[in-house]
Amino acid sequence: METFFDYLLEFFFIIAGIQFSYAGYRALKDKTNNKNIGTAIFWFILGILFIFGKWLSPVLSGLLVVGLGVITLFNQFGSSKEYIENVEKAEKSAQKHRNMVFTPVIVMAFSAIIISFLIPESSTTVIGIGALLSLLIAMLIFRPSTEEVLDETNRMVQQVGTTSILPQLLAALGLIFVEAGVGDIVAAMISGIVPQGNIFLGVTAYVIGMMVFTVIMGNSFAAFTVITAGIGVPFVLAQGGDPVIVGALAMTAGYCGTLLTPMAGNFNILPVALLEMKDEYGVIKAQIPVAIIMAVIHILLMYFWAF
Amino acid sequence: MHYLPLIGVLIIVIGFIMKIDTIAVVIIAGIITGLVSGLSLTEVLVLLGQGFTENRLVTLFVLTLTMIGLSERFGLKEQAVYLINKIKGLTVGRFLSLYLLIREVAGMFSLRLGGHPQFVRPLIEPMAQASAVANYEDTDEETQERIKAQASVMENMGNFYAQNTFVGSSGTLLIAGTLKSLGYDAPAAKIAVASLVIAGISLLMGIVYNIWFDRQLSKKYKKAGGDQ
């Protein structure tokens, strides 16, 4: 069963790669995009990385990733103005289909939940299964022409643009950070400045340590294991804190850091791409007050509730 | 010498502040971090290539885009506006608070409802925009951008602060496992119960934030209306 889902996942990567390659092909022919060559190469490289990623030698993949960076660094990626929105058609279709227009979207959202419940091994592939299933249903309901389907694929990929790969790239950066020992250095730095024997300072260091580590590494799970051993045990738990409360609060304290960091690309940068926001850090900026207030609440709760 | 690997963090910060192309900054930060910590250029490229291809899952949301595009072409947003218009007294903030509540409660039952590609982009954000249009007729780009951000904030808050309330969630299991290996007894079930407190606080905070958001919007549009 597990190997089946491994194959399925690889199959989904190949489809995504074809989608990127198609966007490259369309960019090549796009007269409205004055940087169409750079744009096309960007999508083709991404297509290769997705279709052949499993078989490419890692060095070659690495070089291709650098190629992506070269294109964007020299500002050779441009946007298309090919697509013209047809509001009238959308309004007519809404009146015709009524709430049926929501069916594909709802199928995608809930099929993921249902499938992952029924077949736990499927977890990583559910988004692909849901996407294809809901696409099929959308085609049955709306009966679009082939051209319309291709137009929409291209429009959406061009719109999410280069931001779409940022979360994945940041995950790769995280891997290099781990390999370079960045996490250990951060943990050592924080534990070096906290005085022993003061519960309030210990709690504050633990909460802020979880946040800072998560901001840098982008992952509060990694932060929890490192910071709990380095700061949580000597400065909080050894002073008599209730491990259940301290543990629960330390993890969510890390999430205060997650709200602040572009390193958590999946949560903070991905929506920028999906919602086509102008400000790359628009989501993070709106989360700053939440993160700060929640961090203060974590410190106070851990101090008064766990002791 | 010891702190040299932190240079990558510094590069990222400087790149962000100076608004240099983010993709290039991330790649440069990765390569330099690897090099200063003693890896060869080939080793760094291997890590970069491996890290990228092994994380292709993160970008798998592109598969959902065709369906979302088609749904939009065939009237998803128009119908969302129509539906929201029918509900009296619904504001952006109230709608988003409702989403936050549903998301947190579903999390308790291990239903990982939500996600930016599955829920926010196709459903929650268009409906939030629609409820602004229903109240203020026409919204400008600044407002639309703020609503996009606010919808994403609610998704993240509901996801992060409520996920550990389920005993079998990976976060809860990690807390229990890590503490056990460090010699402290903290069963997952008790951690899940303790996590309810922060989930409840985050729900309250989200609601307060949404009420504030509504006030900002109504202030902005009342003023604009008064000027005319």
TrEMBL record, chain A:
<feature type="transmembrane region" description="Helical">
    <location>
        <begin position="286"/>
        <end position="306"/>
    </location>
</feature>
<protein>
    <submittedName>
        <fullName>Uncharacterized membrane protein</fullName>
    </submittedName>
</protein>
<keyword id="KW-0812">Transmembrane</keyword>
<feature type="transmembrane region" description="Helical">
    <location>
        <begin position="221"/>
        <end position="238"/>
    </location>
</feature>
<feature type="transmembrane region" description="Helical">
    <location>
        <begin position="6"/>
        <end position="25"/>
    </location>
</feature>
<feature type="transmembrane region" description="Helical">
    <location>
        <begin position="99"/>
        <end position="119"/>
    </location>
</feature>
<feature type="transmembrane region" description="Helical">
    <location>
        <begin position="125"/>
        <end position="144"/>
    </location>
</feature>
<feature type="transmembrane region" description="Helical">
    <location>
        <begin position="37"/>
        <end position="53"/>
    </location>
</feature>
<dbReference type="Pfam" id="PF06166">
    <property type="entry name" value="DUF979"/>
</dbReference>
<keyword id="KW-0472">Membrane</keyword>
<feature type="transmembrane region" description="Helical">
    <location>
        <begin position="165"/>
        <end position="193"/>
    </location>
</feature>
<keyword id="KW-1133">Transmembrane helix</keyword>
<dbReference type="InterPro" id="IPR009323">
    <property type="entry name" value="DUF979"/>
</dbReference>
<feature type="transmembrane region" description="Helical">
    <location>
        <begin position="244"/>
        <end position="265"/>
    </location>
</feature>
<feature type="transmembrane region" description="Helical">
    <location>
        <begin position="59"/>
        <end position="78"/>
    </location>
</feature>
UniProtKB/TrEMBL annotation, chain B:
<dbReference type="Pfam" id="PF06149">
    <property type="entry name" value="DUF969"/>
</dbReference>
<protein>
    <submittedName>
        <fullName>Uncharacterized membrane protein</fullName>
    </submittedName>
</protein>
<keyword id="KW-0472">Membrane</keyword>
<feature type="transmembrane region" description="Helical">
    <location>
        <begin position="160"/>
        <end position="179"/>
    </location>
</feature>
<feature type="transmembrane region" description="Helical">
    <location>
        <begin position="191"/>
        <end position="213"/>
    </location>
</feature>
<dbReference type="InterPro" id="IPR010374">
    <property type="entry name" value="DUF969"/>
</dbReference>
<keyword id="KW-0812">Transmembrane</keyword>
<feature type="transmembrane region" description="Helical">
    <location>
        <begin position="6"/>
        <end position="36"/>
    </location>
</feature>
<feature type="transmembrane region" description="Helical">
    <location>
        <begin position="57"/>
        <end position="76"/>
    </location>
</feature>
<keyword id="KW-1133">Transmembrane helix</keyword>
